[in-house]
Write a structure and sequence with these properties.
There is one protein chain. The chain is of the alpha/beta class. It has 11 helices and 10 strands. Helix 3 links the parallel strand 3 (about 105-110) and strand 4.
Length: about 325
């Protein structure tokens, strides 16, 4: 049975019962529908850097980014099989307490993972794709770091390793140029758009990172960002709560003025923005994240976010109570 969008009256393409009990189309549901089981991410740090750190675009990195390049939980690898095997095992072991399945996603997480010599990138991608338990790889990068030779490599590997997948994760964070300047993103919105359509042409799925809670962005502005994504060939989205970390420039600003630079002070305030975001997103868009993780030793705010299970349970309970679901406010094109 397919459900109809109450706002538009159009029938959407994702059966509600295939969301496996969640009020949104989670990555967990997608993997179970596609691969018959949950896939767990194995986070890897390939020792790369970022144009926002090496002087190409800037030197300080994005204002919220830790010294670990957003890969604080990632295991370090090099381009040798022994190094990869050790890091892969280390990262799998970090999933202790979770009952993992047989298949994993090799997640190149730290820094910018298409920003390096193509010969090196090919070696690390192949090491992951050659691992029998890896169903595919997810590569976190920037839209300004997809030169022709890297794109040619991705297309070649996608064909060679089919049916394993290659996903690209692009850190958009915001659609507003003023916010982009504040966080020192280092590229324009048009750069993101060009990258998304280029990847669409190559049939490489795009996951877009969006930050909720940037200073001066209202709930209405954030919802308009979801509407923007609906119009682009974006396959998945990560809705990342703004974490304020020690040792970052944002952390320094927060310590001087928590009220001006702080993120959502309570879980209730966060859910009052997150839930409308989910309601406005297309029902076929895969939701890869609704909050995010941050190292407790670095987290300044919001500290309630450190209890991820509470966040998810409260989100699901509130959505059920409100009769809310992904796409409820989405209006399909005529």
């Amino acid at each position: 049975m397919k459900f109809s969008n109450n706002t538009s009256g159009h029938t959407v393409g994702i059966p509600y019962e295939n969301w496996h009990g969640k009020p949104y189309y989670s990555l967990d549901a997608y993997c179970k529908n596609t691969y018959g089981e949950k896939l767990y991410k194995v986070a890897l740090n390939a020792g790369l850097t970022c144009p926002n750190r090496d002087g190409t675009s800037g030197t300080g990195g994005c204002i919220f980014c830790s010294a670990g390049g957003s890969g604080d939980f990632a295991a370090s690898i090099t381009d040798t099989a022994n190094s990869f095997d050790q890091a892969f095992l280390q990262s799998k072991n970090s999933l202790s307490g979770k009952k993992t399945g047989r298949k994993f996603i090799a997640y190149f997480q730290a820094y910018t993972n298409t920003y390096g010599p193509v010969s090196y990138l090919e070696k690390i991608y192949r090491l992951a794709l050659n691992e029998p338990s890896v169903a595919g790889i997810s590569i976190a990068t920037r839209p300004d770091c997809l030169p022709d030779d890297v794109m040619a490599l991705l297309v070649r590997l996608k064909k060679e390793y089919a049916p394993k997948f290659i996903w690209l994760e692009l850190g958009l964070q915001t659609i507003f140029e003023s916010s982009a300047a504040f966080i020192r993103r280092g590229y324009s919105l048009s750069c993101f758009e060009e990258a998304v359509y280029m990847l669409k042409e190559k049939d490489i799925p795009v996951i877009t990172h969006m930050i909720l809670g940037l200073p001066c962005e209202t709930k209405e502005a954030i919802i308009s960002s979801m509407e923007y994504l609906n119009q682009k060939p974006v396959w998945g989205v990560k809705l990342q709560l703004l974490h304020i970390l020690k040792g970052t420039d944002l952390g320094s600003l927060y310590e001087k003025d928590p009220f001006l630079y702080g993120s959502f002070q309570t879980l209730a305030l966060y859910l009052d923005t997150l839930i409308p975001c989910l309601e406005h997103l297309r029902p076929d868009m895969v939701i890869h994240r609704v909050t995010g993780d941050a190292p407790k030793k670095l987290l300044l705010a919001p500290y309630w976010s450190s209890n991820k299970r509470l966040v998810l349970n409260t989100l699901h309970g509130q959505m059920k109570k409100r009769g809310s679901f992904q796409g409820k406010q989405w209006k399909a094109a005529p």
